[in-house]
Amino acid sequence: MPRCAQDRRRHRVRHRRHQVRCRHPAGPVLQGLPAPVRSPTVKTSATVRALSREFKAQADPEYRKSVQRFFKEPVKLYGVRTPVFREIVRCHWQKVRDLPKHEILGLCEELLALGNGEERGAAFEWALRMRRQLAPADFYRLERWLKRHVSNWAACDSLCCGVLGFFLLDHPGFLSRLRAWARARNRWLRRAAAVAHIVSIRRGRALPQACAVAGILLEDPDDMVQKGYGWMLKEMANSRPREVFDFVMKRRARMPRTALRYAIEKMPRSWKRRAMAKPREA
């Protein structure tokens, strides 16, 4: 991209961030943008309506179109650039952070019911910010969110590397539940079975459970699932490279190449050659 185009793009992002203020209402709605995706039966609070209005006011149609190329399926979003999105979420969090836990989670449920990417991201972020208040019973709420409100890889990874991943770090007894997800028909549950381990893996935990899930998903035909468990193995390899290499070498004849490439991405070049070679050549 030419430098002048890059400068204009940076200026637009800075300008939009400057417009976001906690004490000021959202600006005028951009013309030609779709209405928020919501069911006619969904009732929203003033807090959620204000957040949605600000997302829509800060929407960038050009950005919305560009994001679609990263997904195979259509995604519903306004097109708020990431720095602006984070600032809006932070500002509105300041207004609700002192509410009781059940009220904040209720607001998250309202946001998820709207069906747009930005509101879903805000719900996951707010839930993450109150992770210390979550109790074991909240696992079933997070599982329900995964089943009902995750329909693409970005939403899956946002939930799994956010509030769900940290919940499992704080309550490791629920890690065993992920094996059932690995056998589910829902592709996003299967991807989540792997990706939800990553927060714990980065802290040196849940390695046996992660290997068990990788074994279940080993021959999964879905490329989104293959990338998910391959990414999980790559994270394991950061601290246990030999263990992951041995895991891969024993199973590489049955392991899809997509998952294999992800798993060995950061390994030494000689190890990569051995892993990618045909079995008789290793």
TrEMBL record:
CDD domains: AlkD_like (cd06561). It holds the Pfam family DNA_alkylation. It comes from the Bacteria. PANTHER family: ARMADILLO-TYPE FOLD (PTHR34070), DNA ALKYLATION REPAIR PROTEIN (PTHR34070:SF1). This is DNA alkylation repair protein.
